[in-house]
Specification:
Rossmann fold; disordered N terminus; four-stranded antiparallel beta sheet
Length: 279
């Protein structure tokens, strides 16, 4: 087992040092900023060095620059500069926002499965999946952001994971039913074309998991126990796409079992469709 995979335990967040996560250290951070001290720290042998004294939490706040950069040195000797933003999240720096999705998906994974993850971001989710399907399984992880893929390849050099830079168009060359499982995060739960393409890639007996982040407004949804309307939208769309009469699916007709794994109360709407054997 590679060192990178060994530290990723099922159901656990990465053992990253999350700068700015402890409010009790606020005074120390302000003092470092005044003195111009740039902090360095190690996460599992990966060294991160701040390029500015601005704390990460402040940098990503409304008053900050909206990003923070680090110089990263990997165990292989490779180096690169990364830019952490709200859209590009590094699990060693902040808890990954898609962690609830990883926890739901990992319970469904089995050794030997071939899994597609899109988009994979900076690689944490794909690394978690790889540990579940190892040693005989494989993961194809795609993301359109070049820096995210470059980092993922250096941070998670896992043998059974292929990190590829690209979008949905890169999956078009895959044959029908190429994957035992497909895990996708979509900003729009009504994206019928993309969901149809992902369903095409799901083999008979396999499953497609769709997750979509939601913006919580008007107080705590958990306290009010109010399901998000996006959940019903996604379920209805999956029912239509996965229907045996769907003209967009050129494969032999098959039934699908559709279920809701998350209704948005924790910030994610998550649904799963299992493709049964052809009728």
């Amino acid at each position: 087992m590679s060192p990178d995979r060994a530290h990723i335990q099922p159901g656990a967040a990465p053992r990253g040092v999350y700068p700015g996560s402890d409010s009790r250290r606020g005074l120390a951070r302000r003092l470092r900023s005044v003195l111009g001290i740039r902090r360095s720290f190690n996460v599992d042998g990966i060294r991160y060095r701040e390029t500015t004294t601005e704390p990460l939490r402040f940098a990503l706040s409304r008053r900050g620059a909206g990003f923070k950069e680090y110089e990263v040195s990997f165990r292989t000797g490779a180096r690169m500069r990364i830019r952490c933003t709200h859209e590009r999240v590094f699990a060693d720096l902040v808890p990954p926002p898609n962690l609830p999705v990883c926890l739901r998906a990992e319970r469904l994974l089995r050794p030997g499965m071939r899994v597609a993850v899109w988009p994979c971001g900076t690689g944490y989710a794909a690394a978690v999946v790889s540990g579940r399907v190892a040693p005989s399984g494989a993961v194809v992880a795609l993301d359109p952001d070049e820096q995210s893929i470059e980092f993922a390849r250096l941070r998670y050099p896992i043998q059974n994971v292929s990190f590829e830079c690209g979008g949905m168009e890169n999956l078009a060359g895959e044959t029908d039913g190429a994957f035992d499982a497909v895990i996708a995060a979509l900003p729009n739960v009504s994206d019928e074309a993309r969901i149809s393409e992902l369903w095409r890639l799901t083999r008979s007996g396999g499953w497609l998991l769709i997750a979509s982040p939601v913006v919580q407004t008007g107080g705590s949804l958990a306290a009010r126990n109010v399901p998000r309307p996006e959940a019903k939208t996604l379920m209805d769309l999956l029912a239509r796409i996965c229907s045996p009469s769907n003209a967009l699916d050129a494969r032999p007709p098959s039934t699908a079992n559709i279920g809701l794994l998350g209704d948005g109360i924790d910030g994610w709407v998550v649904a799963i469709a299992r493709r049964d054997e052809p009728l």
